[in-house]
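Q: Please design a sequence for this.
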């Protein structure tokens, strides 16, 4: 997709879009930014877990877990070390970070104006370490979703 096509497809969000649903004022969108929506390419989707006869993908066989952790109010760069005995050096750990909605991890995450980035994910014996950066001028909630598959 060319830049021109992206610009044509992008929809501008009004300042404060979604504000009526927001109960937690932090980095809620104060200015507009571009948004692009696309449909999934169904032919490129790989099913991870199939009927018992077929078995799962080899790289994702073993035990699997998901977990959302509230790392509290943060800003700047952090190495966050989560102790979890189910994780080992061979574990596959995928991480997604974002701004947490007020009310705890079950209240979900949202996209505000702050930039949240994951730089590294390193499984180890007894846990996983991640390096993150929260680009905002004050401390805001950081929720981390972990997907762990241990062969």
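A: Design:
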């Amino acid at each position: 997709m060319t830049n021109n096509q992206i610009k044509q497809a992008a929809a501008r969000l009004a300042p404060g879009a979604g504000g009526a649903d927001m109960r937690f004022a932090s980095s809620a969108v104060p200015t507009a930014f571009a948004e692009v929506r696309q449909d999934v390419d169904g032919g490129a989707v790989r099913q991870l877990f199939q009927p018992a006869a077929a078995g799962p993908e080899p790289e994702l066989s073993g035990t699997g877990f998901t977990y959302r952790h509230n790392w509290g109010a943060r800003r700047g760069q952090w190495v966050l070390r989560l102790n979890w005995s189910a994780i080992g050096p061979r574990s596959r750990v995928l991480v997604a970070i974002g701004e947490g909605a007020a009310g705890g991890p079950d209240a979900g995450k949202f996209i505000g104006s702050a930039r949240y980035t994951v730089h590294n994910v390193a499984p180890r014996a007894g846990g996983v370490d991640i390096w993150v950066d929260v680009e905002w001028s004050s401390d805001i909630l950081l929720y981390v979703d972990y997907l762990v598959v241990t062969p």
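Q: Thanks. Anything notable?
A: Residues 1-25 have pLDDT under 50 and may be disordered. DSSP finds one helix and nine strands in the chain.
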